[in-house]
Amino acid sequence: MPNAIHFKRNELPFIPCKAPGGETKIARVINAKISQNMGGGLEIAENIKVHWTTLYDEILFIHEGSMIVRTDQGEMECNAGDIVWLPEGCTLDYDFTGRRCAYFYALYPFDWAKRHGMEEP
Questions:
Q1: Which InterPro entries match (predicted)?
Q2: Which pTM does this prediction carry?
Q3: Domain range holding 65?
Q4: Which of 26, 34, 47, 39 is nearest to 103 (CA)?
Q5: pLDDT category, 1, cuts 50, 70, 90?
Q6: What's the number of domains the chain is made of?
Q7: 26 lies in a domain?
Q8: Residue 3 falls within a domain, yes or no?
């Protein structure tokens, strides 16, 4: 029978994440060791801008601070408490210029990088 897991904020295993445009800190707590379907964790970004095309479906929950998400459809000012849906294939800019943001993300499939012949940043 599968076990429930409690991840405490002050014990999250943050590691540096080299993103195009800078570096963030990420705790990838929902991973292949835990799930065969989903990925998830907490990421903290500060004063960077990242251009990306999603290779997965993703949900973001802004935990603290703020960020701007720019897509072909326009600009979204995302603040604490907001939820953002990003479908696979969405080209966007995550803009943390002059800002700090901590957000929870959930994505599917968890092994998106392997499926695209990549390693996660």
A1: EutQ, RmlC-like_jellyroll, RmlC_Cupin_sf
A2: 0.91
A3: 13-112
A4: 26
A5: low
A6: 1
A7: yes
A8: no
Identity of the residue numbered 53: T
Q: Say what the pLDDT of residue 58 is.
A: 97
Q: pLDDT tens digits, residue range 54-69?
A: 999 999 999 999 999 9
In a domain, 51, yes or no: yes
Q: Is 74 part of a structural domain of the chain?
A: yes
CB atoms within 10 A of CB 60: 21
Place of tokens 């405490």: 8
Structure tokens at 86: 């990003």
Q: Retrieve residue 89's tokens.
A: 């294939």
| DSSP letter (8 states) at residue 9 | G
Please give the C-alpha separations between residue 71 and each of 54, 65, 86, in angstroms, as whole numbers: 11, 20, 10
Q: What φ, ψ does residue 42 adopt, rounded to 5°?
A: -120, 135
b/e 106-116 (16+ beta carbons within 10 angstroms → b):
bbbbbebeeee
Q: Which two tokens stand for residue 9?
A: 């904020």
CATH number at 57 reads 2.60.120.10
Tokens of 92: 């966007």
Residues 6+ apart with CB under 8 A from 45: 19, 22, 24, 25, 67, 94, 96, 100, 101
